[in-house]
Amino acid sequence: MTRPAPKSFHVKSFGCQMNVYDGERMGELLGARGLSETSAADADLVVLNTCHIRERAVHRVYSEIGALRRDDGTRPMIALAGCVAQAQGDAVRTRARDVDIVVGPQAYHRLPALIDAAAGGRPAIDTDMPAASKFGALPARRNAGPSAFLTVQEGCDKFCTYCVVPYTRGSEVSRPFAAILDEAKALIDAGAKEITLLGQNVNAWADGARGLHDLIAALDCLPGLYRIRYTTSHPADMTQGLIDAHGHVEKLMPYLHLPVQSGSDRILKAMNRSHDRASYLRLIERVRAARPDIALSGDFIVGFPGETDGDFEATLSIVAEAGYAAAFSFTYSPRPGTPAATMDAKVPKAVGDERLQRLQAAIVARQLAFNRASVGKRCEVLIERKGKRPGQMLGKSPWLQSVVIENGPPPGALVEVEIVSAGPNSLGGARFAPSALVLVD
């Protein structure tokens, strides 16, 4: 069945920062085609950019598809993009007949052609992983907030037994050094003051003899860029050069997300993680030797097949021993096609849920302690957006803490503040005199 070509669009992204980046790039691609951005309720085309890491995320996407049908019985053209599209392919349309387009994360640069196919009543499915990079087919960056994402690496060769990324994103591929610098310059020209480098294993990025520390050093020289971050890192790829960069690159913020997943060596081995507890803690010591004030965050999975009470207690203890400023934790979710999905000794759901509550309580306590230790300190805060109340502005500290400032400067300002209050999720900051304003556009 043919239908009019869409004139407006809405992109909704789920999951990780890389999906946020991909969603922004799809929006730029559609804008370059002449479509205008609007709300999901008014759009002719809605793109759902999906995450496949956990089963709950998949269920949520299919609920979103049903909710797009409008009161008058009509619906927009629907494109299912991202990792669910890649993992399920043709089966998406069997489960959700309202979906018009299915496009994987390595093929979304072909979205305009798929829209034309769907409008003409032709099949519109593309889950290829082409050898040629999609990035060269995307338009130049024209819009950026004060803090912007920039994907430098995709895919994963680690094959952790619980993870679908090698199957939905493919093997590790690094973007060329020059292309990354060009995009960074475009983001700065468009208003970005901070750039976060993204990758499934971002510290595996390489271009010839260059490693991520070399890329960071090049970004450090760009005028107009004031902050550099990167995520997500793998412990196996934390080179000495990258560790040293935390000590001598001023623009590299004192924050490192370094997932460990478990504190138990037995479970780490079952997960096919390349580190054990001792080597992970030694790595943290080396990073802190280079940058003593660094804030560390991590990821944890509880309820992995075969996890005993003793294994879980080892995870609880590493939270305290590592001294995390923040962490993300989840109950294990079996993903079809991964080795862990076929493992025996499943942990009962009730046990996994109880362990998660205990772990999250320990993490929140650590996070609150870290934030409270910030009270009385002075630091620069990059203002990112307005708050809920008039005059209230929200920004980030160097340690990635959310800071609320009353009567703060506009987005894009880098302002010196004193931290005057702290909760588990945010800080309160008091701005100094106007002369303390470092920069504002």
Main pleated-sheet profile: 6 strands, parallel
Average pLDDT works out at 93
Distance between the termini: 50 Å
DSSP helix count?
13
Low-confidence region ranges:
none
Largest beta sheet: what is the strand line-up?
2-1-3-4-5-6
Helix content: 25-40%
Helix and strand composition category: alpha/beta
3D shape: globular
Radius of gyration: 22 Å
Tell how many strands the DSSP assignment holds.
Answer: 22
Estimated share of beta-strand residues: 15-25%
Keywords:
441 residues, alpha/beta, 5-stranded mixed beta barrel, 6-stranded parallel sheet
Protein described:
The chain is of the alpha/beta class and 441 residues long. Helix content is 32%, strand content 23%. The protein has helices spanning 17-32, 55-67, 83-88, 91-95, 111-119, 165-168, 177-189, 212-220, 240-248, 265-270, 277-290, 309-322, 349-372; strands spanning 8-13, 36-37, 45-50, 77-82, 101-103, 125-126, 147-151, 153-154, 173-174, 194-198, 206-207, 210-211, 227-231, 255-257, 295-302, 326-331, 378-386, 392-396, 402-406, 414-422, 427-431, 437-439. Strands 2-1-3-4-5-6 form a six-stranded parallel sheet, sandwiched between helices. Helix 2 (55-67) links the parallel strand 3 and strand 4 (77-82).
What's the topology here?
Blueprint (H helix, E strand, L loop, with lengths): L7 E6 L3 H16 L3 E2 L7 E6 L4 H13 L9 E6 H6 L2 H5 L5 E3 L7 H9 L5 E2 L20 E5 L1 E2 L10 H4 L4 E2 L2 H13 L4 E5 L7 E2 L2 E2 H9 L6 E5 L8 H9 L6 E3 L7 H6 L6 H14 L4 E8 L6 H14 L3 E6 L17 H24 L5 E9 L5 E5 L5 E5 L7 E9 L4 E5 L5 E3 L2
Parallel strand pairs: 1-2, 1-3, 3-4, 4-5, 5-6, 7-10, 10-13, 14-15, 15-16, 19-21
Antiparallel strand pairs: 8-9, 11-12, 17-18, 17-20, 18-19, 20-21, 20-22
Helix pairs in contact: 8-9, 9-11, 12-13
